[in-house]
Design brief:
The chain is α/β, with parallel strands linked by helices. The protein contains 3 helices and 7 strands. Helix 1 packs parallel to helix 2 (82-102) and helix 2 (82-102) packs parallel to helix 3 (118-125). The longest helix is centred in the middle third of the chain and has 21 residues, at 82-102.
């Protein structure tokens, strides 16, 4: 039986690493397994001397719907209470933003549909954002009881402007 993975890494061209979140039935909503695989894929791309650029995208009709509200999985001490588990989940997802920002290669977010919550944070962490006309961006942390700390706003860098 073929193993299904929620993160696919391909090298379609020399120097380009494409990382695709692949849970299209859930609009690529993040669970603990996916976040771990994203960390691993980003770490491997960052250490790859042949990688010159990373493209982050989503499978299907969505970029990333953020937190999987049907169940995230374990990201902290399972003995902790709901508040501690919620904070651990926030930190786990937010650490992806830090990983993206610290990559030595530029990261392109190829946004092909909805990018909400933590998915929007991934888009904002990228160095360059390309959005399809089907893209939708939404900050929805507060609707599910998460703080703004989960967003990319906690590690701001000034915008760069090119052209006139």
């Amino acid at each position: 039986m073929e193993q299904v993975t929620d993160v696919r890494v391909t090298r379609e061209r020399p120097g380009v690493v494409r990382i695709e979140m692949s849970r299209p039935g859930k609009l690529n909503a993040m669970n603990a397994s996916m976040v771990e695989r994203l960390h691993r894929a980003l770490g491997e791309a960052g250490a790859d001397p042949d990688c010159r650029v990373v493209v982050l995208t989503g499978a299907g009709r969505g970029f990333c719907a953020g937190l999987d509200l049907d169940g995230y999985g374990e990201s902290g001490d399972p003995a902790g209470g709901p508040v501690q588990r919620g904070l651990a989940t926030q930190r786990h997802i937010a650490s992806l933003v830090q990983r993206i920002r610290r990559l030595p290669q530029p990261v392109i977010a190829a946004v092909n549909g909805p990018a909400t919550g933590g998915g929007l944070a991934l888009v904002l962490a990228a160095d360059l954002r390309l959005a399809a006309t089907t893209s939708v961006f939404a900050v929805s942390f507060i609707r599910v009881g998460f703080s703004e700390a989960m967003s990319a706003f906690r590690d701001r860098r000034p915008p760069e402007y090119h052209g006139t």
